[in-house]
Amino acid sequence: MGVYEQNVGDMHVPYIVPGECSGRADVRWVTFQNNDGFGIFASIYGSSPPMQMSASYYTTAELDRATHNEELIKGDNIEVHLDHKHMGLAGDDSWSPCVHDKYLIPAVPYSFSIRLCPITSATSCHDIYKSQLQN
């Protein structure tokens, strides 16, 4: 477990055929801030387990449209996905389609809660998350 910092643009993986990338697993909280420090804080809430997170300057539609990495058109906005569970790690791919049973997500009801709040450069995201744990 640790705290990591990375620019969204650096999270992109230039696969030959573009696809979803930049995913992070077991995320407890994440912040997105502009150069002035203004942004948003997102965290798991209550008894929710860690989430899956991805962020990209390329929309899902743009990744689906392009057939080569050099065809991608970078947007001005960041598309963020905060997910309870994500199927696709370790098994289901386009060149060898197979899904191992242990990686399937059962079709049962799930409950997932996240907390969103605006932040500034003066905000301590560590303090927000710690105070949430105490409540």
From TrEMBL:
Residues 2-117 form the Beta galactosidase small chain/ domain. It comes from the Eukaryota. GO terms for cellular component: beta-galactosidase complex. Its EC number is 3.2.1.23. Keywords: Glycosidase, Hydrolase. GO terms for molecular function: beta-galactosidase activity; carbohydrate binding. It catalyses: Hydrolysis of terminal non-reducing beta-D-galactose residues in beta-D-galactosides. One of its GO terms (biological process) is lactose catabolic process. Pfam families: Bgal_small_N (PF02929). This is beta-galactosidase. It comes from Liquidambar formosana (Formosan gum). The lineage of its organism: Eukaryota, Viridiplantae, Streptophyta, Embryophyta, Tracheophyta.
